[in-house]
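INFO  loader      accepted 1 record
INFO  loader      residues=194
INFO  predictor   begin
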Amino acid sequence: MGLLRGIVNWSDAGRASKTVKLLQPWMRGKTLDVGSWDGLVASRLGVDVVGIDVCDPPPNTVIPVQRFDGRTIPHDDNEFDTVLCCTALHHAVDQDSLFREMLRVGKRLVLLEDSYDTMTERSSVILLHMISSRMVDMPYQVNGFRSLLGWLNFFGKFPCRLTACERYPGIMPVWYGLNHYLFEIEPLASTSGS
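INFO  predictor   done
INFO  writer      dumping tokens
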């Protein structure tokens, strides 16, 4: 796993810089980073940010990160101007509960998610995540990955409005066979107690 870990770490460094550049124009106000891991990306976005994650934060964490159960976000209704979830929702064991909670605590959501357009890309996404998830002991959900249409159908189950959807194919090295979509979403009504 040493060579594989080196490849993953190499791609993570480049990916973090590209992700920060992509996300900065979308960030504003008090921000919650859902699935923040070490907080590296969130710390570079130029906003007041705290993080939550289902994994114990690593020793090199650069923002305050609180562990949570992956279903119930330990914050108040509308506490955050922006809820950021950067390539983490597909890892959630209960995506419906987590998404509902993000709508509850945020005035707007900015989601960056892995996506695929073909079955070959889907297979690549699943294999790469299976390997990397084992290396860092994070949840891994085969059915958590979606095509663009799959993500749009998922969002359609909730009281929210999609205000932006942009495709970003160049975040990961081309050999990963992976696309990303950025979604900006606004809650339509109070989702507290749902």
